[in-house]
Design brief:
Elements (H helix, E strand, L loop, with lengths): L2 H13 L43 E2 L1 H22 L2 E12 L5 E14 L2 E9 L2 E2 L2 H19 L3 H28 E11 L2 E10 L16 E8 L5 E8 L3 E3 L4 E3 L4 E9 L3 E15 L3 E16 L19 E2 L4
Antiparallel strand pairs: 1-6, 2-3, 2-14, 3-4, 4-5, 6-7, 7-8, 8-9, 9-12, 10-11, 11-13, 12-13, 13-14, 14-15
Amino acid sequence: MRAWRSICTLLLLAGAAFAQQEQTPSETTPAPGTPSTQDQTSKDGNTVRPDLTPDKNGRLSPEQMRELTRVVAQNYRDNYKKMRDYTYVERDVENSMGGDGQVKSTKVETYEITEIYGEQVRRLIAKNDKPLEKKDADKEEEKIQKIIDKRKNESDDDRKKRLEKEAKQREESRKFVSAIADSHDFTLIGTELVDGREAWVIDGVPRPGYESQDKDSNFVSKFGGRLWIDKGDLHLSKMEIEAVDTASVGWVMARIHKGTRVTYEQLRMSDEIWLPKHLTYKFDARVALFKGYNVDGEQTYRDYKKFGASSRIVGVGEVPKQEKTQDADQH
C-alpha cells in the first residue's frame, strides 16, 4: 500500500476513533456515577440516549463525549461483526495534481471486497472501468490463493503474532480516543438530516496549546472536524476532518500539509447494518522528506451482498460451498 494511503487510513482512524474504541479490562469498570454501556439499555430494550446538553457556550464536556463514545463504540462493534457477512464492490478514482492545481493524471481501479479466514481482502477486478486482462486477472487469483494457503496452514506461532499485531492496532485506536477527547473542544451545532435521518452535528476544534504525553498522538491536535451521529441508531453517519496546521507523523516520516481533508459517509442498509457509502479526500503531504503526494479522489461502494455463515472463499481446485447471496435492501 502506498505511504499516502496508510496515512489517509490513519486520518480516518483519528477522525472516527471514538466509534472504533475497544475497551481494555480496566476500562470496563466505569468511574463511580458513570453509567456503563450495559447501563444504557432501558427496561424496554431501547438504548438510553446520552446527555448532550451543552453548556452556555454550546460546548460539550470531555465527559459527555466519552459518554457518547461508550454507546457509539458498542454499536460500532456490534455493526462490525455483521459487516463480515457482506461483500461489496469499491471503485477508487485518484487524481494526481500539478503545482498549478490542475489534474495531471487520473487512475480508476475497481475492487471486490470480501473476507478470507477473518481477513478482509481486496481483489482488483477492473482498471479504468474495464475488466482486467487475463494476465492481470491471473495475478489477482494467485494473490488470493496465497492468502488462502497462508491462513489455512497458519501455525500457532504465526497466529499468535497476528493477534498481537491486531491488539497493538486496537491499542493505537484507544490512544486516539483519549487524545481526541482531551485535545479538542466540542460544540453541539444542532441537528441535520443525513439521507433523510436526523443526526446530531458536533464540531471539534483543536484546543490551543495542547500537548500530549504520547508524541504519536500529538498529530490529532492538528485536525478539526465535524461529526454527524445518527439519533435513531447512535451510529456515525458522516464525518469531515481537515488539517488546520502542518502535522508530522513520525512512524512514516511524513508531514501532512494544511488543507488535507477527508469526508466519509455511511449508509443504513435495511434495519440491520450501517455500511460505507462514499469517501472523498484531498491529500497534500511529503513522505520521508523527499516524496511528495498531492492527490485527490473518491471511493464509492456498491453491490452489497450478504452471504450465509456457511459460505467460504475457497482455493483453486476446492469445491465451493457458498450459499446463494442476497442483495441488502437499502432504506
